[in-house]
Structures are given as structure tokens and as C-alpha cells.
What we know:
This protein is of the alpha/beta class and 317 residues long. It folds into 2 domains: 22-232, Rossmann fold, CATH 3.40.50.300; 237-314, 2-Layer Sandwich (Alpha-Beta Plaits), CATH 3.30.70. The protein has 10 helices and 14 strands. Helix 4 (129-136) runs antiparallel to helix 5 (152-165) and helix 5 packs parallel to helix 6. The protein is elongated and about 70 Å long. Pfam families: ABC_tran.
Amino acid sequence: MSAPSLQVIAPMTAPEPAPTDCVIETENLTLCYGKRKALNGLNLRIPRGRIHAIVGANGAGKSSLFRILLGFQSATSGSARILGRDCNQLTQMDRGRIGFVNEEHSLPSWLRVDEVVAMQRRLYPRWDETRYQHIVGHFHVLPEQRVKELSRGERAGVNLAMALAQQPELLILDEPTLGLDVVAKRAFLEAVLYAVDQTDCTIIYCSHQMEEIERLADNLIILERGELKHMSPPDEFCERVSLWVAEFNFVAPENDKLPGVLQVQRIDGLFHYLVLDQDDSFGPQLEALGARRHYRGVVSLDRAVNAFLARHHAAPL
Length: 317
């Protein structure tokens, strides 16, 4: 009996990604877990270049979005593209164009640093050793150290250096400084700024730390309940939120009598109003409701974003 002949099947190749000025594009992107929608018809276009910060409360859909973009999970409906490629059709070459660092900073604990780097070097043909050495130098990590001997900040530095050494077009950083001490956090942020200044890499930076966003971000993206709620430079968002401080003779008016109220706090007998999309006419409205005096103050990005995200959660005065 003759041996069966072997049929050689050519590997399927994904079509070339469509040229685009956006690193990330989603259209009506929806992801459901049972009856809960982690992403709810998300329409998002992030242009190439600079640093784009994504912020949102827990459950806003940030992690779900990243899993879909990186091809780790399929959406329930809608579409998502990264660097012009359908996220369900990412090739190994596509993945080489994308760097990803999250808050876990996990590495094989039994290996030396130089052994981990050697494995990564073999995976990425565009590996830039000079760039790796420059970035990891911020963290004073020795190549002969075992991973289990590294601090969390040092592991973060090695991960960032390896991600940048592969010369990605897009680098996604998901809560990368979580749990880092002040020194390690400063080194990490300086390395990120170096990457932007010295490369053409676009960075997506996800963090709850507004001081990091203020220092790094050129573009602020706010997600809420799986939907896009705002996208602009950070200072433009701060211009949408204003602080008014007022003193009332008796009882302050109900919030629903004033437009755009995000948050009200009573501090030392004065009422602090954070309001959205209101101009100087808000002052006379306070007077009409009984304010003896009032003035307008400056709002930080941290306070503006937190008030915006917490606007559906009532707090006692």
C-alpha cells in the first residue's frame, strides 16, 4: 500500500493594511458580557503622533478596548482597526509594529535580564540595541541580574526598554506606573518623553494619575460606560469646566436650578460649584438665586476630570 501523498497548503496571508492617518479606528464597537456592555457602540479615531491619554473610571471599557485592539478578544459587534489592520487579522509582522506594557510588568523570574533581552531580540528583526541600552540605563539595571532580584520599578524599566527597542509604530501603556515609587515613576516618565522626542512612535497612555496626564498628554480621551465622552487637548477640556464659589444668606438653591452642575461642595460656609460648559453668565444666575457674593476660580485637570466622571454620583454637602 503506497503512502498517502502530502498536500502542501500555502499559509493564508492577511491583506495589506489600509493606509490611514489614524493608529486606532473603531466603529460602533460593542462588547457584551451577558447583559452588561463593556463597550457600547464606541466610535473612536486616534491620529498618528504624540501621546494620547485615555482616562475613565473603573469599568469604563479601557481594558476591554485594549484586548480587542491587540487581538486577544473578539468584539460582539462593530469593527476595530489598529495601524490600518483589522484587529482580528493581526499578523506576526503587525504585532512587531505594536508595543504593549501593562501594570503587571511580569517577566520570567528564573532568567537573567540579558537572557530575557536575548529572547526578545530574536523575536523582533528591527531591534535597536542602542535604544534599549539608553532606556534601561534610566533604571540602573545590570544585565547579569536575575529578574526575581529586580524591584517593581526596575522590571517596569526593562519592559519599557524592550518595548521601545522593537521600534514600534504604536506603544500602548496601560497603567504602567501603578505601584512604582517616586524615583522609578520619574525615570519611567522621562523615558516615555525621550521616546516621543527621539522616535516617530505614537503612544497611548492609560492612567488614573492626572499629574502624569498633565505632564505627558497632547490629547485627552475620556471613556465612560463604554462610550467616548470627550476628546481634545487637556487644556481645552479644562476650559469646559469652571469653578464658582458663592456665599448665600440662607440655604443654597437646589442643583437642578443651575445649569451644568457637575459637583457642589460646602467648604467653610461657602458653596463651591464645578460646572460644565458655562460662561460668565453663571455668576448672575447665582445672584438671581440669592448669592451675596461670588467669584470664579481656576480648575486643575485632576479636579475637572474627576468631577466630570463623578457627576452621576451624588455626594452630601
